[in-house]
Specification:
It is a single chain. By secondary structure, this protein is mainly α. The protein has one domain (2-84): Helix Hairpins, CATH 1.10.287. The chain contains three helices and no strands. The chain has helices spanning 2-26, 30-55, 59-84. It is flat and about 50 Å long. The model has no long low-confidence stretch (mean pLDDT 90).
Length: 89
């Protein structure tokens, strides 16, 4: 039963990733694109965790943690760039 739920959740996350990618490419403004990129990071993390549960492997959890850290830093950097046009002060 749990295996079926994981597979269904993987498909749902895949659809969410496609919608986030569509917003990233067609977003009307830069803040919309930053938010879409952040949502894509979160969806990627969820997909990796679900894929790790499906394969019963713990390496995907570590990859999800690395993507979470990089996603946070990337979002902060892009937001600072949009606000001040300078990343490092």
């Amino acid at each position: 039963m749990i295996d079926t739920a994981v597979v269904v959740a993987l498909y749902a996350i895949g659809v969410a990733m496609l919608l986030s990618l569509w917003r990233l490419l067609r977003g009307p403004g830069v803040p919309d694109r930053i938010l879409a990129l952040d949502t894509l990071y979160v969806n990627t993390i969820a997909a990796l965790i679900l894929f790790g549960m499906h394969l019963k492997s713990s390496i995907y959890f570590e990859a999800a943690l690395i993507i979470a850290m990089l996603g946070f830093v990337g979002t902060v950097m892009l937001s600072k760039y949009v606000l001040r046009r300078d990343i490092v002060e």
